[in-house]
Amino acid sequence: MRDEMDDDILELSDTVQIHAKAPFYVTANEFEELEKLLEEAMKNIKSIDNPRTIILETWLVLDYCVRNLIAGALDMTKHSFDDLDLRYELLPHGFRSCLDILEKIINKQKGLERPPEDNRITYNGQFLHYIKKSSPDCFDKLLELEQAYYKKYHPELVREEKSLLLTDPSSINNARETLNLPRIEYRSVSDSWFGVIAIIDAEWFKKARKLNDIRNFAAHRFDANDIYQKMGINGANKLELLRSFCLKELEVLFTVSEIK
Fold it and tell me: Which of 23, 44, 110, 161 lies 20 to 30 Å from 133 when distance is taken between CA atoms?
């Protein structure tokens, strides 16, 4: 019998499934790419006997996840093509740098309000600059009327500081400086992206960095025992314990699990 959580599970194949809260931000075209990556990783972790390769397969999922999240936050997908993948052409080659960038983006975005709704009045920066220069009294009156309008019809939009919302990105910085307006920062990522990163917290980044450290160590070691010792794996079934560790990492970091 299916339990009530089954509706939140997406079966990618006969052997691999992910939870709806998985931190993968992909387009419809990239979804097939994600399916292949996860299926291949799961298969290789369970079948290959080389510890270095097992760790690398696990890390590749992490690298893909992080680069896609950054690309999604910065809306890079629409500028990428088959022969120009900005996830690899533009972002740093070093994974640690990418992870730091993602952490900064998430921390910044979590501290910002959602963009104002359609009820907020918007202005072109050049137009405001013209009014301020041509008729300062008119500009001040515009500020007063805006606040009076919000108080009467949309009190949720009233701010302690008088402010005008600019809509021309190219003129925002110059206009705010010229007009002596306070800078207002709003969340710049989509609601869907913000939902995807819901499970990513400080502990997630701690585990991600640990996995990256293990991968860097394993990449420069040919003796499997060095890798096992680094990871604190002991006993007669070291290889199987390593497999279990990597499968657990996929589940904890990405909600990826095996269909049994």
Answer: 161
